[in-house]
Amino acid sequence: MSEEIYLEKKTGYAIMTINRPKQMNALNTGIVEQIDKLLDEVEADPSIRCLIITGAGEKSFIAGADIGQMGTPGYQPADAHYLITCGYKVYNRVEGLKIPTIAAINGYCLGGGLELAMCCDFRICSANARFALPEIALGIIPGWGGTIRLPRIIGEGRAKDMILRAKRIKPDTALQYGLVTEVFEDVAALRAGADSLAQELAAKAPITMAMDKEMINRSVFTYNDLTDSLALSYCFTTADSREGISAFLEKRTPDFKGR
Ligand code: CAA
């Protein structure tokens, strides 16, 4: 497994870490494919009874999909389509794991990062965490389930306030919205808290745990049939998405034309 993502096995649980701190732990195609492979490893090992997902360092959990990759010369809508559908499948896999999952959110939790966190059963964060689905600023939409899972978790009105305005929220608001269940004073305390929660969950009866999860997920399940991912793929064919991505990489304000 590459050094940009790794799985550490502890007693009873495992920690999956995205390790691209210079890119704020953004997810490129290779990393998404590797998450899929690591999930095979997690599912094959009965000693892993809980999975923590986190980002390396103290600044960012995951700042979304890799905008640098999207801005690479020659990057085609078909490349984006592959990344999006691969992410769609992998994220649904995370949500459907039989073992409990914890997103330990150690900083920026944006775009595809928040979408991954929302596939986890528990979201806990450090005080420096910031949450947003800012895709509209890039001329694209959150296509890894964000338009479906965010309203499911925080309600339609708040989700529109965040998504349509690319609004960034702090842990106190995330706690009030029910987007996280616990806030720790710093990243070290968060990591200790995640370990402790994982140990607690790993000690529970695995069959009951899997059934509880399945029943709860079924009770709140709204459709997730690839429509949002296909809409995101479409966005990558527009001039506005090229403008939004270029503007981000050139550190300027985008000028959207509606085409
Ligand atoms: N992809 C690639 N690189 C990224 C990145 C991303 N998502 N986010 C940050 N970086 C890179 C920056 O380009 C920058 O690189 P350089 O040093 O080479 O210039 C480096 O990380 C540090 O970023 P900043 O200089 O911007 O640092 P900051 O502290 O001022 O801001 C930030 C940090 C708030 C995370 C800001 O970088 C930001 O807003 N990032 C973009 C977040 C975003 O739009 N995410 C959505 C992506 S699209 C998506 O996820 C689609 C989907 O649904 C699948």
UniProtKB/TrEMBL annotation:
Pathway: Lipid metabolism
Keyword Lyase: yes
PROSITE patterns assigned: ENOYL_COA_HYDRATASE (PS00166)
Entry keyword annotation includes Lyase: yes
GO BP terms, alphabetized: fatty acid beta-oxidation
Keywords, comma-separated and alphabetical: Lyase
Gene Ontology molecular function, alphabetical: lyase activity
Similarity section: Belongs to the enoyl-CoA hydratase/isomerase family.
Name used for this protein in its record: Crotonase
